[in-house]
Structure formats: C-alpha cells, structure tokens
Specification:
heterodimer, A: Rossmann fold, B: alpha/beta, seven-stranded parallel sheet, five-stranded parallel sheet, 25% helix, elongated, binds flavin-adenine dinucleotide, binds adenosine monophosphate
C-alpha cells in the first residue's frame, strides 16, 4: 500500500500571534514556522504503517513557498521515503490545495491519503474532506485509532459525543486527531539521511489547477480583548462575587 | 435567495445548535428551509417545523443517514443544491465532517466556523485559534458555511412550517458505521451548559476529577478539560475544550489546574464570567480571568464545595 501525506508549513503553535496594525493580516515576518502539528501525527502514522509492513511506500507533499522544503525534509527525517514540493508564494485555499492533491493522487495512485484534521493557521478543517469528494473516496476524519484489515480500514473517530468507529474501503482519506499517536523526533543520522532523499519540484500550473482565491480577506482584526479581573482570597469571597455577578 | 440549514440531531431530538444556525441563516436574508436527514426523523422534523421564520422542512428518512456519515449526507444534499444559494450547518464534528464534501462537489470554497454575518457574502471567522478575526468576502455563486453556534442566539420557537419528505439517497456507500462509544452523563452537554467547570493537568488523575464533579452537580454544570488532561487519560476526548476541541461560551467557566495556553483559551474565552483556580500566580489563565484564586486546587475545590453547600446549593 502506498501512502501520501500532505503537510503544511504554519506559524509554530508556541508563537504569540500578532495582528498587523494595518489589519491586513497576521505578522509572519521573522517568526518561527513549523510543520502543522496534526501533520506531524499524519507523518508518524504513515511511518508506523510502513514499519508494520502495512505500507510499502510513503510520500510527503507540501504546497507553499521555497521554505516548505524544510517542512518536507522534516517529514523525510521522520522516515517518509520521498517528497513532492509544489512551489507557490501565493496563499492557497483548501479547495485549491484539494485540487492539486487530487492531481497528485491521480499521478501517484496511493491507496491512502493521511491529512491533518485542521491547519492551525486558517483553522479551516476542510482539505481532507474536499479531497475525498473530488476523488469520490470515502473518508474517516478525526482519527484516534486506525487499523488496516485487508482492503479496508477501521478507524475510531473523535466526535462530539465520544468515539465513533467506522469502516472505510480503500482507497480512502484519513484525517488525524491529536491522540492517534505521539510523533517521534528525528534522530541526527536520520536528519542526515533525509538530505539525500529526493524531492520532486512542481508548480500548481504543472497540474493545471487555478489557485485564484475564492475568498477575499477584507480585514484581520484583534479579537475582543479580555483583561485580568480581581483576585479572591477564599471560597466565601468567590461565592459572594459569583452571586453578585448573577452567574450562580 | 433560498437558504438551506442542515439540522443537527440524534434522530430523537433536534439540537440547539440548529436554532443558532438558523439565526445565522436568517441574517443572510432570504427564505430558510431546514433539512432533517436521519433515520426515524418524524419527531425531529416536527421540532424543526416549529422554529420561527422557516419556510419549510425537508425530511429524508433512510437507514444510511442514521449516523449522518459524510458520504451519505453528500448523496442527499448535493442534488438539492440546484434550488439553493447558500447552505449552512453547525460546526460540530458532524457538520465539519460532511460540509466540505458538499463545497468541493459544488466547486465552492467553504467558509468555516463563522462568528458573524456582515452581509449575504461577507462573514467574520476566527483564525489562528481565535487570536485574529478575519472578515472574508466570498466570490462563489453558492455559499457553503459552517456556523459556530456559541456566536449566535437561538432562533425562537413558534413557527409552523410544512414538512416535505424527499427521496432516499443513492447507494452503495464506501463507508460504514461500526460502533459508537458515547460518554454517558446526567450532566448537561458541554456546549449547551450555562456553567462549565474544567480540570487540567493539575488535577493529577481521573479519580481526582471527583472533586470538581461534586461542584458541577451542585451548580448543574457540565465538566470539561484541557487537552493535557485528556491526553493523560484523566477524562474522555469529548471533554476537551479548545481550538481543536469544543468551543463553549457559558455564563460561568471555572478553570481548575489549567495554565491557560492559547489553544485552551480559544475554546472558552467568550464565556461571560471566567474563574481560575491555580497555584501558580503567574499562570496565563489569570490574565483573562474575572476572578482568580491562587490556591492549591486540592484544598480550594473542596472549600468551594463547602461554601456552596452553605449557600444552599
Ligand atoms: C495542535 C494543538 C492543538 C491543541 N488543542 C488544544 C485544545 O483544543 N484544548 C486545550 O486545552 N489544549 C490544546 N492544546 C494544548 C495546549 O497547548 C496546552 O498544552 C494545554 O492546554 C495545557 O493543558 P493544562 O493547562 O491542563 O496543562 P499545563 O499547561 O501543564 O498546566 C497545568 C496547570 O495546573 C496548575 N497546577 C498544578 N497542580 C496544581 C494544584 N495542585 N493546584 C492548583 N493548580 C495546579 C499549574 O500551575 C499549571 O498552571 C493544543 C496543542 C496543540 C499543539
Ligand atoms: N498548503 C498545503 N500543503 C500541503 N498540505 C496542506 C496544505 N494546506 C492544507 N494541507 C493539508 O490539509 C490539512 C487540513 O488543512 P485545512 O483544511 O486548511 O484546515 C492539513 O493538516 C494538511 O494535511
């Protein structure tokens, strides 16, 4: 089984987000960027499936600027076999990402695509589901457990009420949730080895995909602020304050 | 303009998130219909028909829709979309699962988790875990939108729309429901509760959650948790509040042994009143708490319980 893993380079989750004063966006100059945390979980899952003999080949793909190659290298250092970099400096919306991924799937013929459930920058939570629809493949989103039996996957999904288990026939789309696994750190020898792994260079045009955005961002503003209130000394004071506020 | 709202329900009861999504839909301006897709949905359809301001309810009753899996929902909804200019669903795990499939089939870029409607094509949505609010204008012919229920008031009852039964979805489907393990609780649902009390890594163990459960029962509150508490196995995954868990906005949110990482704040900072109990006075949670109590939770929470008992709770 061949597994494709799309990864996005995003603002590191530890960085404090600053909205630009002209309200055109978020300040990304000179801030730490990393692989989207959910994508690390996808990469880990693909590598584990290969180690378990369920996957025969693993491929990572990232759509983004030159620097997205660093993110691809991170995945290669974690154990993915090879990479595809679709270079563009434009911001690519999930719909266009899904279209590019569809074209890559049609060229590479993977049996499984593992995406993150959500990119922590746009918080869209769409790309995997869109790719599923474009390919007419079934999907198992928000995966918490994943087992392969024959030509289908059994996936435990994190849903609002608890865990739901579904079975999907391959080829299929999986999107990962936080507790599917704990991603490994790449070892130094593997980081060295990753430097020699191949990365294919492509552009959106190579796939004939129009990436013109459908959404125009008119403004990016700070959320309504909250400020620190008062400290209470004991339970009696807290209960009195909550009664005064009319919330209990 | 014709607008379709997809109802959230469990085949027995319509969820309040539907009412909130209807409010967002009405703000777009136009005729709003509700689709109830499920198995044995007669009662739910009748409940939906009572929402004020609705034109009609479409009911699709089929075994493949019992769990509202994305592939089955796609089969029902896409053929309906010739007649609609916009489709909205709550951004619950169900809505998040099927809506992008509809968008892709219509060649539309979905607008996720809106918190405001500026006009029929312009919306406000949080990005970067709610650390920035984007105003986005859609150029697509049809709008596909998921709605953050906490940002909208519930539409009123008092309507009497007609219910129209529509054709069954086409099969066969490539996904299949196997089983479900739902957390059982007599407490209110996390996203619907007026009061939420959440525990973090500071709780130390699942057993220790008993002390906050006692307070929850006194106050009729729901119990939530931080990611760290879920990852550590103290409580099930559906307790998680935050950027990638549930978003809540109760009247009162009590954070116990939670440091206040941005990913957690993303899920609770719109609560009306926030209380933090933490032994570290520098914990970031205190920067947004209305009432902060610097204390060891293992003494503070039982004291709070005793004080509430004294006050008649
Ligand atoms: C992609 C991604 C998504 C995430 N999504 C979410 C999410 O949706 N929700 C979420 O919550 N987090 C999320 N996180 C995790 C988040 O970054 C934090 O790691 C997490 O919120 C920390 O949980 P915590 O506050 O319980 O633990 P900690 O940060 O370890 O804080 C524990 C706190 O308990 C206090 N404490 C300890 N013992 C006591 C005691 N006896 N009495 C009183 N206080 C005590 C400590 O002072 C400390 O402040 C996400 C992270 C990533 C990378
Ligand atoms: N530019 C990109 N390149 C590669 N994969 C992406 C890109 N954008 C999104 N993805 C994938 O889609 C997932 C969900 O992203 P989103 O729908 O934007 O929340 C991510 O976790 C990635 O797996």
């Amino acid at each position: 089984m061949k597994v494709l893993v799309p990864v996005k380079r995003v603002l590191d989750y530890n960085v404090k987000v600053r909205v630009k004063s002209d309200q055109t966006g978020v300040d990304l100059a000179n801030v730490k960027m990393s692989m989207n945390p959910f994508d690390e979980i996808s990469v880990e899952q693909a590598v584990r499936m290969q180690e378990a003999g369920d996957a025969t080949e693993t491929i990572v793909v990232s759509i983004g600027p030159d620097k997205a190659q660093e993110t691809i290298r991170t995945a290669l250092a974690m154990g993915i076999d090879r990479g595809i970099h679709v270079k563009t400096d434009a911001e690519v919306e999930p719909l266009a990402v899904a279209k590019i991924l569809k074209a890559i799937v049609e060229g590479e013929n993977p049996d499984l695509v593992i995406l993150g459930k959500q990119a922590i920058d746009d918080d869209s939570n769409q790309t995997g589901q869109m790719l599923g629809a474009l390919l007419d493949w079934p999907q198992a989103t928000f995966a918490n457990t994943l087992t392969k039996d024959g030509d289908s996957l059994t996936v435990g999904r994190e849903v609002d009420g608890g865990i739901q288990t579904v079975k999907v026939s391959l080829p299929a789309i999986v999107t990962t949730d936080l507790r599917l696994n704990e991603p490994r750190y790449a070892s130094l020898p593997n980081i060295m080895k990753a430097k020699r792994k191949p990365i294919d260079a492509k552009t959106p045009e190579d796939f004939g995909v129009d990436i013109t955005p459908r959404l125009t961002t008119l403004k990016v503003a700070e959320p309504a602020g909250r400020s620190a209130g008062v400290k209470v000394a004991d339970a009696a004071e807290l209960v009195a304050k909550l009664k005064d506020a009319g919330v209990i | 303009m014709a607008i379709l709202v997809i109802a959230e329900h469990d085949n027995e009861n319509l969820k309040d998130s539907t009412h909130k999504t209807v409010t967002a839909a009405l703000a777009l301006g136009g005729d709003v219909d509700i689709l109830v897709a499920g198995k044995g949905v007669k009662d739910v359809s009748a409940q939906a028909a009572k929402i004020a301001g609705i034109r009609k309810v479409l009911a699709c009753d089929h075994v493949s829709l019992k769990r509202q899996l994305a592939e089955a929902m796609q089969e029902v909804i896409v053929p309906l979309m010739d007649g609609y200019d916009a489709i909205l669903a709550p951004d619950t795990t169900t809505g998040k699962n099927f809506m992008p499939r509809i968008a892709a089939k219509l060649d539309v870029m979905q607008i996720s988790s809106i918190t405001g409607v500026e006009s029929a094509d312009t919306f406000i949505r949080p990005i970067y875990a709610g650390n920035a609010m984007a105003t986005v204008k859609s150029s697509d012919g049809k709008k596909v939108i998921t709605v953050r229920p906490t940002a909208f008031a519930a539409a009123a009852e008092g309507g009497s729309a007609s219910v129209e039964v529509i054709a069954d979805p086409k099969g066969p489907l490539k996904s299949e429901f196997i089983s479900e393990e739902l957390s059982k609780s007599d407490r209110p649902e996390l996203t619907a509760a007026k009061i939420v009390i959440s525990g973090g890594r500071g709780m130390g163990s699942g057993e220790n959650f008993a002390i906050i459960e006692k307070v929850a029962d006194q106050l009729g509150a729901a119990v939530g948790a931080s990611r760290a508490a879920v990852d550590a196995g103290f409580v099930p995954n559906d307790y998680q509040v935050g950027q990638t868990g549930k978003v809540v906005a109760p009247e009162l949110y009590i954070a116990v042994g939670i440091s206040g990482a941005i990913q957690h704040l993303a899920g609770m900072k719109d609560s009306k009143v926030i209380v933090a109990i933490n032994k570290d006075e520098d914990a970031p949670i205190f920067q947004i708490a209305d009432f902060g109590w610097v204390a060891d939770l293992f003494t503070a929470v039982p004291e709070l319980e005793a004080e509430l008992t004294k006050a008649g709770f």
